[in-house]
Amino acid sequence: MSRSPRRTTLHLGALSLLLFAASCSEPQPPDKEQPPEPKAAQAETHTELRDAIQAPIDRAKAVEPQVLDAAKQQQDAIDAQTGG
User: Fold this and answer.
1) Which pTM does this prediction carry?
2) DSSP for 9-34, written as a single string
């Protein structure tokens, strides 16, 4: 028993219409039993990247007072030599 091309096309068309209708349905609401994961918990997974970015900033902040002190000493030495 073979199917006619017209009948096969009709079946494929109906199947396509059914799949299209199913894909356009409204999304299911989230399960009430399991609340969504808080954003803070998601952020914890990115701590390595955050730490890698923050480390050079922290090192620069740590040496900033030394750099400012050295600059002041240099300026004082220049002022002493030039009488300024």
Assistant:
1) 0.40
2) HHHHHHHHHHHHHHHTSPPPPPPSSS
